[in-house]
Write a structure and sequence with these properties.
- Its main location: membrane.
- With 700 residues, this protein is mainly β.
- It has one domain: TonB-dependent receptor, beta-barrel domain (Maltoporin, Chain A, Beta Barrel), CATH 2.40.170.20.
- Helices cover 4% and strands 57% of the residues.
- The protein contains four helices and 39 strands.
- The protein has a 22-stranded antiparallel beta barrel. Strands 4-10-11-8-9 form a five-stranded mixed beta sheet.
- Strand 13 and strand 14 form a beta hairpin.
- The chain is globular.
- The two termini are 48 Å apart.
């Protein structure tokens, strides 16, 4: 466990060399009633007018429609053939909607619930299919982003190429991950073609932002590629006294050592500041349960700061021994430090927390044939390490004294896993099988208490079957299990137990022949034991563990057509039930999860005539009724609501050739300024109001 990433690489290389000579030569594509899909893989960002985009070897998209992603299987299998549900937020979707947070980027993704805790710019928080994956389901470039109880890594959407949402138990290939799947954030990478853009942005709440994205070959041979992405923002927010300031920088460089060997270094630093006191006061009944939010904020200007500094550095290495054998290794070291001060009437609180994590994944990819069956085999192992220390103090006083902080609470988690996956192709059939065993070790030490240790091993698996027809229709079924260690403690139970889960799914994918469009639908059932959930008492959240199940249905339609029309529409039905928490909550719905939700975003880019260069877009997001606590009390039930977003852009070169590369764009989120109470876990908030900003971008 103390071996370095380079030692891991050397060991895996020896394994690869001993097996390369026995590998079967690469075979031709399998015959059968399948449609051959042309893979579009272009490094860099999509053109403003649409077209193909993607990150070389990681994801390929065409406008709003995703073609391939490594997130599903760690290979380049077309999304339409994978027996799994994968929803993708493409680069063009990001450029059209200009999300400011990860939550906003997921607004139109089916089955994803965001905004359950109202407007809270401190964290990115969301559910998938009723499961909270804030802590356990976020991955960056295929590696888990480890978090502590208070230390959650933030995301700057401007630094992303694409976002892939993989549904279903994926622990068999990703290790520690949520039973419902993962969100994989794909970073911008160096490009083979030169790119350069700068952008200025102004808008609501005194918003001023500048950003840049430059890169390309660093030498004539094109063997060294680079990219530098940066952003600086000074802004206020919808809440008084709560800033939204940020500095972000992300250097990346690729070295093509030869035709068979490549290594890409990815790094990032971000310093963000917002408020620590941003909660609405609640009214309570005689039993201490919330009866709703008040307009008054629990606000103390002397204790209202949340500053977080985070950084990461890592690399992606790949080497091909032959046409059929290659080795891959991805590593990342991440660190985070936060300081939070918050307060209300008669109390003040302070949190200091530091997080360190390391993740490394090494696997051998082999392509062999056994008779009519083609195999893409992955054999690998990975290593994960999380360490954090936290100091939390709360003081009840009238003169707002700084709370005294106790000694550090510390926790260290180590996870090692070995896995194998086989993607099999025989004519139109696609069979996916995978298995993995993880060894988990945790040590937790709080001041004044004995050290608590957990040590456990767990096997997880995944299986899927799909049938690819010549008509673009692909029915599929899948089943997967999961195993997820958790950080922190739970009420009256000590250190949180690992979460275990399983999911079954059946669906159909349709790649519309002759059009850049797709329709995907699926029905699912999942169960989770010792899942994490929060319950708020007063203003303090307590972490609990529960067993529950969820079942439902999702459908999504995507299109980017040659005439300039773009569409993303989805509907989801999610039915949750608590199986084990307390006697009074068994059989109840999970807090804040709507049974019904739908969204639609449509855009049109004028291709010719007097309006050429004009792009318009608008969307509606609907969230059905749901409960504000696990008791399902009607007094704080959340009523149905809908929000409207909009976008208008214009390519200025249509006015004058001197303005070539200049684009003006205006975006609005919650255009109708609909502000409603939203309750979750026995506490109530309000959502963010209307936000409008204009950007002027120059690309050359």
């Amino acid at each position: 466990m103390s071996r370095t990433p380079f030692a891991l690489l050397a060991t895996a290389s020896i394994v690869a060399l001993t097996t390369a000579g026995a590998a079967h030569a690469q075979t031709a594509p399998a015959e059968g009633g399948t449609t051959t899909l042309e893979e579009i893989s272009v490094e860099g960002r999509a053109a403003a007018s649409g077209g193909a985009s993607g990150t070389q070897g990681v994801a390929t998209n065409d406008g709003y429609v995703a073609k391939t992603t490594r997130t599903g299987t760690k290979t380049d299998t077309p999304i339409n053939e994978i027996p799994l549900t994968v929803n993708t937020v493409t680069q063009e979707q990001i450029e059209d909607r200009r999300p400011q947070t990860l939550e906003e980027a997921l607004f139109y993704t089916p089955g994803v619930r965001v905004g359950a805790s109202g407007f809270n710019p401190r964290f990115d928080s969301f559910f998938i299919r009723g499961v909270d994956i804030t802590y356990t389901g976020v991955f960056r470039d295929g590696l888990r982003q480890y978090n502590s109880v208070n230390g959650l890594f933030r995301l700057e959407p401007y630094g992303l190429e694409t976002i892939s949402v993989l549904k279903g138990g994926a622990s068999s290939i990703y290790g520690a991950s949520a039973s419902v799947g993962i969100i994989d954030l794909i970073s911008k990478r160096p490009t083979e073609a030169p790119l350069a853009e700068v952008e200025a942005q102004v808008g609501s709440f005194d918003r001023f932002q500048g950003s840049f994205d430059v890169g390309g070959p660093a030498n004539e041979e094109g063997t060294v590629l680079w990219r530098l992405t940066g952003l600086a923002r000074h802004a206020n927010s919808d809440l008084p006294g709560v800033p939204d300031d940020r500095v972000f920088i992300a250097p990346a460089v690729t070295f093509k050592l030869n035709d068979d060997t490549k290594i890409t270094f990815l790094s990032e630093y971000m310093n963000s500041t917002t408020g620590g006191s941003m909660f609405n006061a609640n009214s309570y009944d005689e039993n201490g349960y919330s009866t709703g939010a008040l307009k008054d904020l629990l606000y103390n200007p002397d204790f209202n700061n949340f500053n977080q500094k985070q950084g990461r550095v890592g690399y992606e290495f790949e080497h091909a021994f032959s046409d059929t054998i290659s080795i891959h290794q991805n590593t990342r070291f991440s660190t985070l430090s936060l300081s939070e001060k918050y307060g209300g009437t008669g109390y003040t609180g302070k949190v200091i927390e530091n997080v360190y994590s390391f993740a490394a994944d090494t696997y051998l990819k082999s392509q062999v044939s056994t008779g009519p069956v083609e195999h893409t085999l992955l054999t690998g192992f990975d290593f994960g390490r999380l360490g954090y220390n936290s100091r939390y103090g709360l003081s009840f006083n009238s003169d707002h004294q700084v709370p005294e902080l106790p000694d550090k609470t510390k926790q260290f988690q180590t996870m090692v896993g070995v896995y194998v996956q086989d993607e099999m192709k025989a004519g139109p059939w696609r069979l996916l099988l995978g298995g993995r065993h993880d060894w988990f070790d945790s040590n937790y030490k709080a001041p004044g208490l004995d050290q608590e240790r957990q040590s456990e091993g767990k096997f997880t698996g995944r299986a899927g079957l799909s049938y690819v027809t010549e008509y673009g229709i692909t029915p599929f079924v899948s089943y997967g299990t999961s195993f997820t260690p958790n950080s922190g403690t739970v009420v009256n139970s000590g250190v949180a137990k690992p979460t275990k889960g399983e999911q079954a799914e059946a669906g159909v994918k349709y790649a519309v022949p002759g059009y850049n469009a797709s329709i995907n639908a699926s029905a699912f059932w999942l169960k989770q034991t010792d899942g994490l959930i929060f319950e708020v008492t007063g203003t303090d959240p307590s972490q609990l563990q529960l067993d529950f199940r969820t079942r439902g249905f999702e459908i999504e339609a995507l299109a980017s057509l040659e005439n300039g029309l773009k569409l993303q529409a989805s509907y989801s039905y999610t039915d949750t039930k608590i199986l084990k928490l307390t006697e009074v909550t068994e059989g109840k719905d999970i807090t804040s999860i709507p049974k019904h939700a739908f969204s639609i975003w449509s855009g049109y880019d004028f291709q010719e005539g007097a309006l050429k260069g004009l792009g318009l877009g608008a969307g509606v997001r609907y969230t059905g009724s749901n409960f504000g606590d696990n008791l399902n009390r009607s007094v704080i039930a959340n009523h149905p609501r809908a929000f409207v977003d909009a976008k208008a852009s214009y390519e200025m070169e249509n006015l004058s050739n001197r303005l070539k590369g200049v684009t003006l764009q205006v975006n609005a989120t919650n255009l109708l300024d609909s502000i409603k109470q939203v309750c979750t876990s026995n506490y109530c908030y309000y959502n963010e109001g209307r936000k409008v900003f204009a950007s002027l971008r120059y690309k050359w």
